[in-house]
Input
Amino acid sequence: MSGENPAREKIGSLKWAIVLSGLLCGVKGTAAFFCASQALLASALDSFMDAGISSINFLSVKKAAVKLKLEVEERAIKSADELRKSITNLQPREGDTLFHIPDDLIESQAEFIIEAAREKRWPTMFSDESLVTKGGLASYEPSYYQMGRAGARLAGKILKGAKPQELPVERAGKFDLLINLRTANGIGLSIPGALLKRADRVIR
Output
């Protein structure tokens, strides 16, 4: 197998957590919602090798949070209704954030999550920039433009005779940071100027 692999970089391990800390100087912890079946799989594994993508992301968040001394409030849910009830009843504490773990069940309720977070003045960190354009606070994800260019280079090598199985699977080398300043202002959050300058795109 050869090509670009964004899956294991989706959370970006420590990178994502560092960006989150940069967004919120006083961040203390984060709530992470995920599918319960994936949580059970993740807790039973000692390594990432045989885990599904959601499990890999869940474990990455936990490990990164430990390094930055952030508390992770784990919220395993089994259905969309349970997710909605959990978020509706949750009262974020000062310094809390919502951290998006890529998962089909969670993403099916993205608009509800974004609206609930806005009402609760709850900072959100996503792994998909489309959710930030819909009202999320920020996203940090692999640059698919750069990955496309890298994929084209690999395709060129194959067309010139290289064997696909001998080409390495490349990880994303660049991550894009998107910040929704309108959302930040709406929840009363001040984003450091240095981080705004670092962002690849700012929604004003």
